[in-house]
Design goal:
Elements (H helix, E strand, L loop, with lengths): L5 H18 L6 H17 L9 H43 L13
Helix pairs in contact: 1-2, 1-3
Length: 111
């Protein structure tokens, strides 16, 4: 592998690592994910505007992995929204069973 292609291969490797983090059963450690994204940002900022032709495979691999990561995150976001909706629904149902809440400061029949 040429030195010109190495940063692009590293970019693809970072995309693999990011996908592994977001597809893990447990949520990723925020510091680990943040460090990975910071490294990716630094790497991308240092790349030339026109990549060498030899980097095409690494760039295609990175793009495909990023697309999978985006899809995984979208799925997790939808799942989180469904769970939050269920919690909200449960709260409304629980309030319905609780009856009306007494007004604070109101006098009772005893005066």
């Amino acid at each position: 592998m040429s030195a010109a292609v190495e940063p692009y291969e590293r970019l693809a490797t970072l995309a693999e690592e990011e996908l592994a983090l977001v597809t893990a059963a447990e949520l990723p450690d925020a510091d680990v994910l943040e460090a990975l994204l910071a490294e990716r940002d630094r790497l991308v900022a240092a790349l030339p505007a026109d990549p060498p032709a030899a980097a095409a495979h690494a760039l295609a691999r990175a793009a495909a992995l990023q697309e999978r990561t985006t899809g995984e995150l979208a799925g997790r976001l939808s799942e989180a929204r469904r769970e939050l909706d269920a919690v909200g629904h449960g709260r409304r149902v629980a309030r319905g069973y609780g009856g009306a809440t007494p007004q604070r400061g109101a006098l009772d029949l005893a005066g």
